[in-house]
Amino acid sequence: MTSKTNPTPGPLTDDTESWKRTLSILAGIKQVAGEVRAEARQIEAAYPDQWIKPGHWERADLVSALNNAYAVMSADVRAIARSRNIAVPESLR
Q: What is the rounded radius of gyration, in angstroms, for the C-alpha atoms of the chain?
């Protein structure tokens, strides 16, 4: 990422802005999946005796998609970190 203070990006390090943003994006995906999962549980609680629960299955599908995206992305990020000797946060191990 170029900026006024760093016009030519260098190698990735633990302190590189783009690395920090990448980890932040992964954490955000995980957080959103948890929030949507909680919404699905609230819907289940609100309609305990109904087979069709309005909005539940859409949220379940969304959680599945977010979890799949997180799994693929975190595996790739771990591989990049290993290849560049960058610290991998405990949450990605």
A: 18
Tens-digit pLDDT profile for residues 18-74 = 888 888 999 999 999 999 999 999 998 998 888 888 888 899 999 999 999 999 999
Q: What is the pTM of this model?
A: 0.75
Helix 17-46 × helix 56-84 angle, to 10°: 160
Contact 73, 22 (CB under 8 A): no
Q: Which residue has the tokens 């970190």?
A: 81
CB 63 within 8 A of CB 40: yes
C-alpha–C-alpha distance, residues 11 and 13, integer Å: 6
Task: Report whether 28 contacts 62 (CB < 8 A).
Answer: no
Number of neighbours of residue 49 by Cβ within 10 angstroms = 5
